Amino acid sequence: MIKYFTNIVALLLLISSAACAQNNSNTISLNGTWNIVFDDANEGVVKKWFLNEEFSKLESKHIEVPSCWEETEENYEGVGFYTRNFTIPANWEGKIVEIDFDAVNYYSEVWINEQVVGFHEGGYTPFSFRIDKLLKFGEENTIMVRVVSPIILTDKRIDGMGRQEVPMWRGAINGGIWQGVNLSAKGHTHLADVFIEPRIASNEAVLNMTVNNADAFTNNRLVEVSIEDAKGRVVAYRKESIVALPGKNKLSWSMKIEDAKYWSMDNPYLYKANVSVLDDKVLEDKWSHKFGMREFSVENDQFTLNGEPLYLKATFFEGLYPVKLAYPDSREMAIKEITLAKEAGFNMIRPWRKPAPPMWLDLCDSLGVLTVGSLVTECMLRPISTPRLSYVVENELRETILNNRNRTCIVQWELFNEINRPILTQMLNSMSVLARELDPTRMILDESGGWGEGANIYLPYEQTPMKFNDIHHYSGSQVCEAEFNGYLATAKTDNEKNEQGLAGVKTYGKHVVPGMMTYLSEVGYGSTPDLISNMEDFKKKGNPIVAPSVYHKELNEGYVSALQKVGFDKIYPNVQDLYLEEQKIHGIANKRMLEAIRLNSTVKGYCVHALVGGDWVIGAGLLDLWRNPKTLVYDLTKAANQPQIAPVRILPRNVYAQKGAQLQVFGVSEKADEKAVIEVQILDANKKVMWSETLNTIFTSGISSFIDVKLDTKDYSGTYTVEVSVSNETGEIITKNEQPFDVFTNAQLIAPKAKVAVVDDEGSLKAFLDAKGVQYLEFTKELNKSIPVLIGKGQKKDKRYQQIAMDVKAFVEQGGYAVFLETIGNKIPGFDRVLHEVDEDALPLNAELHAKWATRGGWAAKSHIVTEHSVFDGLPTNQIMHGVYENVHPVESMSKIKGQYIAGMIGYDHFPNNDVMVRHYNGPGEVWWAADVLEANIGKGQMLMSTLRIIDFLDKDPVADKLLFNIMNYSVDKTQQ
């Protein structure tokens, strides 16, 4: 299934020639063991720890550079002083010597031999300082670096920077010198910058070079440029003399490449540019970088690569790792995740709010995957608003683009994400203009999600933007008919919706313009990884003090405890079985979302959240943190990503046998038209063929309809599966698909004969019972305790309704039985929070209700489990709700309520301790539980509470009818005991 495991040797050979960042032979690595003192009280500057004598009095620790300092000091944030000794070659004297940091998070100050050098702000971009006048050549030297990390979890305030006030990435504190450090030497006239512009229209590479003359007089120099192909042959060459004035001298040379090969995902062909500055024949400086000839743009409302249409299939990527946190644990791990992304059908990776490190980008260049240039700005209200916000945003934008604009894999800059502050909305245009000035070659997206004013994209070399629908939408676990239709209708005009039978359908996105090119840049569901196997990996290969080791263990313990708390451990005595079933539901949901999206011709691509899951989005990944594919999540998402798919719909999903159903089979193809054989079968639970059809047709490019027929289901009963197989002329299978549905007969939906009493201010419950010929009484306080009471919809805030509810409670306390088909309670504000258990006596008015995000899940697993109980007679039990339950699935759940759980949810909260600002740099919050169907003892009687959407789907979905009748029969039986 996964080519990685068989091709790893070949891949490693390929990567050995990966593109390098700036390359200078006169370099000395300072990576290795340093000494560090953690300055928790921030007293080092006052006490002059940057002086060797003072530092030597302190108790220091060894620390590896590069590394995140959380690997050494658990969850530390604040100040640290790093130092080490090094020797400079005597023959470097007279040269310009620089110290080069690949990245230090967040604020750094540098001393050489106790002499101040400079400072840098920004945690994810490289920086350099000239230091040759401070060095002792041929002798030992000392470097001291003071680092202030982002302040995330504590209330420290250091150097004017407080909690969450600086740009940060949510995957870890990521403090310290977390990328490499080098010394480099060069002549006084040297290269300050080289920017390569690939122009495929003319097969030219334009090299924009800045030559810096550090002297106070002019220098005559030779500049030499060569471009080599993949075999090392020179395909373009130029050499010229220049007069270098003091300061920066700009050059722009166009280098023609005959018969240029274009870089693509299938053929990631890289050239190598070499630039040298010479004083006569003495080398002053040299630079080299690999690059590809490619152009990513939009033409005719379609993404294009090198002028060819491309349906964009991206995956969201946080760049979090199990041991090294922000940096790949190994090159092999980075190769594995990129390779698995490509093999799953993705052509783009969207690093999220953290610029990717050089090694990872090297691999993307060489392996052939498009990437988004992400800035560590606007990470969901981060950094928080302070007067420094505008400065730090511009600083991150400028440094990130300048550092990465020679990367072939990066085809787009994404400036902001989900803006919700006026100051950032105000900066959208100015930052887009700045990005265009820094890099004319790439597409620029001003804001993912379009929350501010709707998204804009700037095409390469364009100064004015094109309006663009960029949408974030998470369906949760149930991609029901309404949710599926929402994807079909999104960004459609009213006329288009009317023509497709989608009038009135709720659509997705903010500031969406109907009929405009659309991209769903966040979509997907979630599932818990196999924490049992993950913990074994952490024992063998992990670091016990880093957050991922801790939160994987705590999350597993939380699930075990929650299952026991509500009795679901009888269904899942081995918690691992729950995790694997969650992954199945995750895969089904992802597949249905992507099928729906691809059936919308206005949508030109999507980004699945996420490739790898960790921290507070641990459930979102197709791969776990150790880069293991999560069973059906990976496989089913991969299936939906293929160039040709055959989506299936049964309308409705749950069928009344006498009414029949509509079977629809579609084709979606990114390839040229080809002859195909479409075979469709409907199989019963015993694999007996109930219906079949074979078509000889054309599998056309784009979206097509293969089958749209009305099924006669009067002789059907039970569970069925539609199976589709599409073959080409040679008999080779192009694609397969299947979709289950269930049929309910009249005999399965016989209305109860026993009497019940009803409270139903809204009226829909009574109307249904009347239509089914069910006799019922109006509830009164004097009702006989042998008659159960059904309470339907009502105005929850209406005092009269609340009084009736309390009257029903009094009836129960005296020995009666009541069923609330819609739970009354208090909505929990925000997404979710830590809760205390709620006593049964709080019912029916004061249950605490988790709303949609916490109940159906966004990118996190929210598993609603159905037990074997009379309420669910004739329906699947001892499993997670899906399939037949997709319509009645709850959108609210009673959090931590006491009682007998007949159906309920297990999940974890996102923002612990009511602090929505922490955003889980240390992992997810506690595991909690909630009830969907609960039986509670109230006084002498009992109360059945339900959050299932039964009333909403009566006479629309047979499962709703079945549940109501089951509840009625069960409640009558209870009163007869």
Give the mean pLDDT: 94
| Backbone CA Rg | 32 Å
What gross morphology would you assign?
A: globular
Please give the largest β-sheet. 12 strands, mixed
The number of distinct β-strands equals 51
| Tally of helical segments | 16
What fold name stands as the CATH topology of the domain at 747-976?
Rossmann fold
Short description:
By secondary structure, the chain is an alpha+beta fold.
Structure description:
There is one protein chain. This protein is of the alpha+beta class and 977 residues long. Among the domains are: 189-291, Immunoglobulins (Immunoglobulin-like, Sandwich), CATH 2.60.40.10; 658-744, Immunoglobulin-like; 747-976, 3-Layer(aba) Sandwich (Rossmann fold), CATH 3.40.50.880. It contains 16 helices and 51 strands. Strands 40, 41, 42, 43, 44, 45, 46, 47, 48, 49, 50 and 51 form a 12-stranded mixed beta sheet that branches. The chain has a 10-stranded mixed beta sheet with strand order 27-26-25-24-23-22-21-30-29-28, with helices on one face. A 6-stranded antiparallel beta sheet has the order 3-2-4-9-6-7, with no helix packed on it. β19 and β20 (308-309) form a beta hairpin. The radius of gyration is 32 Å and the shape is globular. The relative contact order is 0.07.
